Amino acid sequence: MKVATISVTRIGCLAIAAGTILFQYACSGGARHESTEVYDLVTTNTHIAYWAEASAGLSAAAKDLGVRAETIGPDTYDPQAEKDALLQAVHQNLRPAGFLVSAADPDLMRDAIDAAVAAGIPVITIDADSPKSKRQFFIGTNNYQAGQMGGDIVAKELNGKGTVVVFSLPAQANQDERLEGYKRAFARQPGIRITRVVDVHGEPAKVFDMANELIAKKAVPDAFVCLESQSCAEVADALDRANVRGKTIVAMDTIDDTIGWIQKGMIRATIAQRPYTMAYYGLRAIDDLHHNKPSSVESNRSSVPVFIDTGVTVVDKSNVAAFQSKH
Question: Kind and range of the H or E element at 54?
């Protein structure tokens, strides 16, 4: 939905239908944004396509609001460096007005998130949650449901019988939730068995080598599942080079290579999240929390939600052209 135009002198009340949160923007006082008002999106692997899409949403929201926003964190998968980036921003002289945080490791990030909140800086988690931290709430995917959707696709393709190898980042709670969703879908199909869950350690290029090892050992499973965005393109490439056909691959997200392999028929489908939406809506939400701090987030009359689901889309050959047009 389109939001109301923001006035320079007075910002009106804006109700968002996605949840119970109310974007007030100083309905009673005509508060305005300061030139020093900056918001940070903190994540890891900042250079991958998924976070480039989120950064585009962040920039669009910042432009709409008339504030500054930036993405910070390591350009490789490094949860400790992500934590360090957040703590450095918390302790700098000119602190950000709010943080959006994707917690690569929810337990590791907990203290840093709590430090930001203790310093009076609101924090919303997006994409990957840290539920035991003092963050205000989470915006992202219902990952358990997304896993079940992927699992149903695999089960249908295998006709209820076959072996599956899963590629994941087990430290991330969101990927564990996706795996549980897949397991739930497969529990209804006793003939389907997960034979291995592979930790890609944030290095999807190694997945290509792993797939080649399976090919060389003639131990290729009937299906491959990827719980993060980059691995399945590597699997498809390895199988294609070895001329291995008839395997089911279900990916995550819509990086260019994944879209290309769907069009070529090597990847059956991908479960597409909405990182642009997470960051766009997240910035608006954190801006509101900066200007209108909630009195409580733990009561039945809290002014903020616990979770806002940004939804997913199954992308396959039937609709892949619509996603290809974005790239």
Answer: helix 49-65
Global pTM? 0.85
What are the structure tokens assigned to 127, written together? 């994409």
Q: Indicate if 163 and 217 belong to the same structural domain.
A: yes
On whether both 197 and 105 belong to a single domain, the answer is: no
Distance CA 319, CA 251 (A): 15
Give average pLDDT by consecutive 10-residue segment, the chain, 327 residues: 31 37 41 79 94 97 95 95 98 95 96 97 97 96 98 97 95 92 96 95 88 95 96 97 97 96 98 98 96 72 88 97 72
**For 3, what's the count of Cα atoms within 13 Å in the CB-facing half-sphere?**
23
Question: Any idea what the CATH number is for the domain that residue 195 is in?
Answer: 3.40.50.2300
Residue 1, in any domain of the structure: no
Task: Return the pLDDT at 325.
Answer: 54
Model pLDDT, residue 324: 81
Q: Which tokens belong to 138?
A: 């989470």
Alpha-carbon gap, residue 247 to 236, rounded angstroms? 9
Indicate the pairing of strand 313-315 with strand 269-272.
antiparallel
C-alpha angle 237-243-246 in degrees, rounded to nearest 5 = 90
Q: Given this model, what pLDDT does residue 166 score?
A: 97
**Is 262 among the domain residues?**
yes
| Helix, coil or strand: residue 199 | strand
Residue 106 domain boundaries: 37-140+276-293+303-310
pLDDT of residue 327: 41
Give whole-number Cα distances, 201 to 26, 143, 205, 249, 296, in Å.
44, 20, 10, 20, 38
pLDDT of residue 27: 39
- Note whether residue 21 is domain-resident: no
Residue 7 lies in a domain: no
Instruction: State whether 170 and 257 are in the same domain.
Output: yes
